[in-house]
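Supplementary notes for students who missed Thursday's class. We covered one full example, reproduced here. Read the sequence, then the structure, then the short commentary at the end.
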Amino acid sequence: MLHERRPELVYASISGFGQGRPALAGYDQIAQGTSGLMSITGEPKGPPTKVGVPVGDLVAGMFTAHAILAALLERSRTGVGRYVDVALNDGLLAMLTYQAGRYFATGESPGRDGNHHATVAPYGTFATRDGHLNLAIGSDEQYRRFCEALQAPELVADPRFATNAQRQGARASLVVEIERRLTRRTTGEWLARMEAAGIPAGPILDLASVRRPGGRRARHAGGGRPPGGGADQPGGRAVEAGRLLGADSHGPAPARPAHVRGADRGAGLLLRAGGRSAAGLIGGGIRPPMGLTATAEIDRTRSAANGTGA
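Structure (token representation):
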């Protein structure tokens, strides 16, 4: 066992459903179905729908990174590492939040609500004269101000919509009443009105609009160029950390040194392990468990800086 040979090793594995459970392939599409996520995603009368990005893969990677950092912190205090086992299915189950809470509170599986909130109304996507906008009316006071901005005081006085519980119960009728008024003006006009009234509202942008100057709500939605040049890459940074160790945090990720590229070929994600690489451990007959495996180790003496190990 790795732990017996190197008790300080922090070792992480990502699989679909946990080690020793290979019956289902560990792909994001499969895990989105088995976790229940697809059952609550999509239109009420439509089919179960997957999220537009591989959220199971992404969540598993983030949970693994957090767990590795926690294990490294623990090891700095105890000298002992840990084996971290993360599954896509488990990660998605952990993300179900209030939908799981609804099930445990009522014993009934939540259904699909499309682009509308399951427990708050009006809270979702609404048609305008030239497109759609998102509204997030989270309180009775916000609803009153929203109706003022909508120039629809009758919707405040309507007893069907007096409280959030009543609005939720009559959501279909409420959506019809709201869209009847929103379709009189453009999305841009309504966004200006909502902003002036302090009502949470936003546009629905495609990726070209997100990247267009003046259309970016994300701080770094423009992506960047990969090391060595090439076309701009999509996406943006989730965290703004400023300047770190004198490096420009606004530039692209640095290219890996040649010796690192060679060392981790066929050995997964590799950081040096006390002067002895994980590739060396594996080459010596110590095999990782099944699943996509990442071996992460940072030696306190920084022996890797001396070029020891594979």
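Commentary. Residues 14 and 86 are 5 Å apart (CA to CA). The chain has two domains: 1-114+253-310, 123-207. If anything here is unclear, bring it to office hours.
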